[in-house]
Design a protein that fits this description.
Layout lengths: L5 E5 L24 H11 L5 E5 L9 H11 L2 E6 L16 E5 L19 E8 L5 H17 L7 E6 L9 H18 L4 E3 L10 H9 L17 E2 L4 E3 L9 E2 H7 L2 H23 L3 H4 L19
Parallel strand pairs: 1-2, 1-8, 2-3, 3-4, 4-5, 5-6, 6-7
Antiparallel strand pairs: 8-9, 9-10
């Protein structure tokens, strides 16, 4: 299927962490994906979709995590794992070069077991780095330098990447000035160390950025990150109850994926999946841009579809 490049899976909605910035902690139903049904789903999805993103909750606490992770590696071109790495079971996986792991930087400290970074394997590692009104940028930069030092000490070939995002549990427009200042200081500091360290997780509405931040975007290696268009090829999320959603930030249940799978041939299954997600994209677009400010904005649709947060804070 041409339109979907990657799909996201909530392998479990259970979690062994408690992050204040967690976007779905109030929505999780504390369920694990049924293992047999998950295997059946992965086998079908892999026919057309090349990349899988394994999320949670905390995916490593699924009782059959290792077996399911290894199964997805056999089926998908690349497997992206999002984890807090608190569970020692992560020591037992073997990422391929084309795989990736995103670690939650909140749980990295002096006592963190850096064997969980799996230094013997050559793959992309990134650290989700959340900036909120209460974020101490000095402390965050100290932690980032600590991580970089550990990578050098362990002689890990690929440099870490830091996926910067904003706290989606805060009204980012209400705190626009302070968040822009914190964001700029973090990006400038990372850019001075190595521009390739900088990455962005969520897309942010263009109207959130101040003039100073926009100028900074243009000076970095990621000027396109200013454009806040929805990642059309990277949408679709299946929760642990096998309900299809558009994405993490839009928890509206669109269909039961197992019913779609059981009632349709492979071709028809992917056609219906694409139709459902394309319709949800248009509905998200209308909801995100349904303000006078957005309707009159020169960036609307071409450069901005409201990003991940616009629908929360109109």
């Amino acid at each position: 299927m041409k339109h979907i490049n990657a799909i996201r899976i909530l392998l479990t909605e259970n979690c062994n962490g408690s992050c204040s910035f967690c976007f779905n902690k109030d929505l999780r139903e504390n369920k694990d994906m049924d293992t047999n049904q998950a295997i059946k789903l992965f086998d079908r999805l892999a026919i057309e979709i090349k990349n899988l993103k394994i999320m949670g909750g905390e995916p490593t606490i699924h009782p059959d995590f290792i077996m399911l992770y290894e199964h997805t590696q056999k089926r998908f071109k690349s497997v992206f794992l999002f984890t807090n790495a608190l569970n020692d079971v992560i020591l037992n996986i073997k990422p391929r070069e084309e795989d990736a792991i995103t670690y939650n930087i909140s749980f990295i400290n002096k006592n963190f077991n850096f064997n969980k970074i799996l230094p013997d394997y050559d793959f992309v590692r990134s650290f989700e780095t959340v900036v909120g009104t209460k974020t101490n940028i000095d402390d965050l930069l100290s932690k980032i330098n600590f991580i970089i030092g550990k990578f050098n000490e362990l002689k890990i070939k690929k440099r870490p990447r830091f996926s910067i995002t904003l706290n989606c549990m805060e009204n980012i427009f209400k705190h626009k000035q302070i968040l822009n200042r914190k964001w700029r200081r973090l990006v400038v500091s990372l850019n001075d160390i190595d521009p390739k360290l900088v990455d962005f997780d969520h897309s942010i509405p263009v109207c959130f950025w101040t003039k100073e931040s926009i100028e900074l975007f243009k000076r970095t290696e990621l000027p396109d990150s200013l454009f806040s268009t929805c990642r059309r090829g990277d949408y679709g999320l299946i929760n642990s109850d096998f309900e299809l959603l558009y994405c993490n930030q839009h928890p509206i249940k669109l269909a039961n994926i197992l019913e779609l799978l059981n009632k349709n041939s492979s071709t028809l299954f992917f056609d219906k999946l694409n139709t459902i997600l394309s319709k949800a994209y248009m509905e998200k677009l209308i909801k995100n841009l349904n303000t006078e400010e957005c309707k009159n904005c020169m960036y609307a649709i071409t450069h901005c579809t409201g990003g991940c947060f616009k629908h929360k804070y109109p």
